[in-house]
Amino acid sequence: MDDALQTLAQAEAIAPQPGAKSMRASVAGRLGDVDQAMALYRELAEEDGPESAMGSSAAMSSLYSDSLTAVQVAELHRSLFAGLGQGARTAQSFANAREPGKRIKLGLLSADFHHQHPVNIFMQPVLARLDRSQFEVTIYNVGVAHDDQTQLARSRADHWVLATTWTRAQLTQGIRADGIDVLIDLAGHTSHNRLVMLSQRVAPVQVSFLGYPGSTGVPNIDWLLADPVVVPPEHDALCTECVYRLPHAVFCYAPEANYPFPVYGAAHAQRPLTFGSFNNVPKLTPHTIELWAKVLARVPGSRLLLKAPSFRDESAIRIFRERFVALGVDASRIEFRGPVGLTDMMAEYADVDIALDPVPYNGGTTTLQALWMGVPVVVKEGQNFVSRMGASFMRAAGLPEWVADSDEAYVDTAARMASDRQGLMRLKAGLRARLQAAPAWNIEEYTRDMEGALRAMWTDFCEQARGQEHA
Q1: Helix%, strand%, coil% for the chain, nearest 5
Q2: Position 259 in a domain
């Protein structure tokens, strides 16, 4: 990162560089300076206009910010994208047969059906189980990555449309021509999204799920799939979409790959207590680092293992090490590890005793992977979707005692759980079996709940349309 900034400065000394601001924003995000990244992305969005991809980058950055409240995050999303829906097609203008019980034409819009991506990890087991007598599935692939997982997703769909190079008009026409009834957007504000297209409406029912942990703020996305913890009813006002709550957890972790469960024995109980986080560095906010420094202070002799793609870079390691040292943490207590393949990464959870969830942007996939490998997670229950995922997963696992409601309770919880090594070892040894017995980890039940949600959304549309016809 240091080299990148130096080279950029040298280039700018020669001539103006049109992409310089977005490069600086990207570097700031990779080094954990989220507010700087967000400010730069907002400037770029204002410069480029309402359809700028920088608006999505600004929205995404806001989820990591320590300085914004949940209400401010929601207001930012609304303000960035409110203008996109002008002149949009109405849901009632589509000619789709309004039959609540018919076989639903279901579209999935994604760039991320490839190895290691969370969308792929969570959607593949659902795709394998969707009732094809009830749903005709078309995947619109707008991504650039292709591997064996891409081919697997293709084999699990009724129809596969490679739309990476399609213009907005081409994809709009294609989805409408296919007669899609319910379109699930699996990207939100992440890379390769087609939110501007969705804001103009390309299907009677449009749903946001999985790719983005919260409300998009984008007009004409009708539904957000959630659960009772990530978006309780009193938080509906934070969402521009109607909220449909799945009964257990919003995501069901049912990996199709085999990750051998570690054997937690005497050596694990006797080593220095090791806390850990495998989350990307934008989540390691100043607030998060301060919390974790307090945990280390409360648990003498403990260590912290931090693993992230950025930690292949020496400048990132140096910066984060200095941030902990400034809070009184001895540098020798922090270990940094860079990226490896998914199978090897899962095995590395054996080196962690207790995972620490970041705030405000909780771990999603990482928390569920930690639990699967026998690592319980200390979480703080926040005020919006992105900051309540950890609470959702730990409550669903029957471990509410790991959920804190304040910074002080978070530190107390970590210290208390670390103090009982024998109790911790018993929990770790039986953790995967505990999950497999919980409804939230039952992929068959989860898929039926998902089907019920989609059927309810379609029925709601049909009833609304019928009501307007008789008005």
Answers
A1: 50, 10, 35
A2: no
Residues 354 and 410 in one domain: yes
Contact 386, 285 (CB under 8 A): no
On whether both 227 and 169 belong to a single domain, the answer is yes
- Judge if 425 and 457 occupy the same domain: no
In terms of Cβ atoms closer than 10 Å to its own Cβ (0-12, 13-18, 19+), residue 422 is exposed
69 domain-assigned: no
Work out whether strand 274-277 and strand 182-185 pair parallel, antiparallel, or are unpaired: unpaired
Query: Would residue 362 count as lying in a domain?
Result: yes
Note down pLDDT in tens along the chain; length 471 residues: 888 999 999 999 999 999 999 999 999 988 888 999 999 999 999 999 889 999 999 999 999 999 999 999 999 999 999 999 999 999 999 999 999 999 999 999 999 999 989 999 999 999 999 999 999 999 999 999 999 999 999 999 999 999 999 999 999 999 999 999 999 999 999 999 999 999 999 999 999 999 999 999 999 999 999 999 999 999 999 999 999 999 999 999 999 999 999 999 888 889 999 999 999 999 999 999 999 999 999 999 999 999 999 999 998 999 999 999 999 999 999 999 999 999 999 999 999 999 999 999 999 999 999 999 999 999 999 999 999 999 999 999 999 999 999 999 999 999 999 999 999 999 999 999 999 999 999 999 999 999 999 999 999 999 997 777 665
Domain span at residue 26 reads 2-62
Give me 29's structure tokens. Answer: 């995000």
Dihedral sign for Cα 310, 314, 319, 322, please.
Answer: positive
* Same domain for 216 and 157: yes
List of residues 6+ apart from 249 with CB closer than 8 A: 227, 229, 392, 393, 396, 440
273 occurs within a structural domain: yes
Q: d(Cα 262, Cα 124) in Å, to the nearest integer?
A: 25
